[in-house]
Amino acid sequence: MEQYKRLIRYLKPYWWVVAIATMFSLATSGISGAMAWYIKPVIDGINLNKDIHIIKTFPLLYIGFFTLKGLFSFAYSFLMRAVGSKVVRDVREQLFKKLIGLPMNFYVNRPSGELISRVINDSNVLQGLLGYSVKDIIVEGTSFLVLLIIAFIRRWDLALIAITVLPFSFFVINKFGKKMKKISQQTQEQISGLIIRLTESISGIKMIKGFRREKLHEDKFNEENKKNYRVALKGARTIEYSSLIHEIITGIGSTSILFYGFYLVFHNKMTMGDLLSFFAAIGMMYTPIRRLGNANNNLQQARAASERIFYLLDQQPEVDGTKNLTEIKNEIVFDNVRFIYPGTRKKVLDDINFRVKKGELVAIVGKSGAGKTTMVDMLPRFYKPVSGSIFIDDIDVNDVTLESLRKNIGIVSQDIILFNETVMDNIALGKLDATEEEIKEAAKAAYAHDFIKEMLHGYDTIIGERGIRLSGGQKQRISIARALLKNPPILILDEATSSLDTASEIIVQKALDNLMTNRTTFVIAHRLSTVRKADKILVLDKGKVIETGTHEELLSKEGMYKFLYKSQFEKDAHNI
Ligand SMILES: Nc1ncnc2c1ncn2[C@@H]1O[C@H](COP(=O)(O)OP(=O)(O)OP(=O)(O)O)[C@@H](O)[C@H]1O
Ligand SMILES: [Mg+2]
């Protein structure tokens, strides 16, 4: 019941459109009633009174009825479709707003295809179903009553026979409604499965080709597609099966009535006009019953889709703090920070403790998978510690507003995210109100200006989804330009120069050196030159800080740093 109420609430802003549509629809029901009603005077007039006048007026009357009925159904169908589209638009708006505000935690372990399916597909299911179901329940319910009254007036005992089949009909409606809900749920899940497969194959197309795995992916897709087909078939079978049962019930009902009716007419207990008028009313009544059944099926399908929609809408959004973080004055402190990714058990960060003074350069080194990226992700609160806290100037980062926190932090991340917009827009992400001059300055400082100028439309070139039209190093330089433009007091560089060749790296490193001056910088680096300059080096291993100190201090110990230095940095050392 709660769920129905919540669903119907989407119609609330458009209640007056639904109301107008319902009126038009009620008018068509009225006309149906009138058509059944007037059959008696027409037939009896011709049959008993031999009234030629009726033969002349009858066509005009019925053409009028049909035309009006057509016009009214046009009006309500159009209005209801409009309402359906408005509801889908509103639901999608709401879903997207919700999605974009959910914390990173939510996105871990969730395939993007599933979320796409919820926003596009589940909302689409509401299109026809919701508005029509509500209208049908009102209108067909009324039609049914009007026709039933006419039937009773014409011949009450016949009407009684006719309605004995009703409980059977309602039983069938209810039973199939429940089944439809389950099938609809399965359908939505199957579609979601299809989209997941599709997005995965398209985004990994290069790997699929490289490893010649086309057939494998085809098989996986077909398997998913087949499941989808089977559920669709099951749905079709259920709907048509419910129609079949209806037909049989209707058939038995009408034959009994016809039999008894003819008997009454034969014995002059009833006129032919009465019988046909009655029969028209009963005949027209089965349509509303079937529509009520469909409305029930539709509502069940809408419920199935809405369960998935409401699941998303009920997720907790990223919690915002209240304190305003001004520029860092003193220090950043990690205090006993522990972190576990949702849905896993491994402590990715375990008892991390360190302090960084304002303006210091901190290098974080460690083997792949040690937890370096995760650690720096905690600072802008992409993830919250499971226990422990992070302070900036004695304020817990959990308490500050996301706006002020993230304004203070610039990130050049390991996986660079570019949008399918112009180069200009991609750099401007760092500062939305930046002037063209500022953007070009930033690009120059990041050594990106030259290659951008050579692109077909220069700064106005659209760089493709995920920056597909750029090389790895070019993406990295755009990302650096973003950070330069943003000009934040705290900077995070996660392997910022890893995709550059030695020559460009030396150049970009100069840009980064400029960028790092007067900022508190966390740098995850593989280059000795950067690490050696650091005021503090944190050596991370299996989620723990196992060594801290300057380059010289750490080299004097026989520890992990010395090992890393020997294996990883030594070859660099030769180059310098
Ligand atoms: N989204 C995630 N869900 C679950 N576990 C994750 C997730 N991201 C990372 N991990 C795990 O957390 C650990 C630390 O990962 P992290 O990316 O922080 O390592 P890293 O030190 O940055 O490694 P690299 O040098 O390769 O970038 C890894 O063991 C990894 O398996
Ligand atoms: Mg990393």
Radius of gyration: 36 Å
Give the names of the bound compounds.
Answer: adenosine-5'-triphosphate, magnesium ion
Label the CATH architecture of the largest domain: Up-down Bundle
CATH superfamily heading of the largest domain = ABC transporter type 1, transmembrane domain
Biggest sheet features: 6 strands, mixed
Summing up helix and strand content along with how strands pair, one would put the structural category as alpha/beta
Q: Tell me the fraction of residues in β-strands, as a range.
A: 5-15%
So what's the overall shape? elongated
- Poorly predicted runs are none
N-to-C series of helices and strands? HHHHHHHHHHEEEHEEHEHHHHEHEHEEHH
Distance between the termini: 72 Å
Number of domains: 3
Average pLDDT score: 87
CATH hierarchy class name of the largest domain: Mainly Alpha
Describe this structure in words.
- The protein contains 20 helices and ten strands.
- Strand 9 and strand 10 (544-549) form a beta hairpin.
- It is elongated and about 120 Å long.
- The model has no long low-confidence stretch (mean pLDDT 87).
- It folds into three domains: 2-313, ABC transporter transmembrane region fold; 324-408 and 490-500 and 507-576, P-loop containing nucleotide triphosphate hydrolases (Rossmann fold, 3-Layer(aba) Sandwich), CATH 3.40.50.300; 417-487, 3-Layer(aba) Sandwich (Rossmann fold).
- Helices cover 65% and strands 10% of the residues.
- It is α/β, with parallel strands linked by helices and 576 residues long.
- Helix 2 (15-47) packs antiparallel against helix 3 and helix 2 packs parallel to helix 5.
- The chain binds adenosine-5'-triphosphate and magnesium ion.
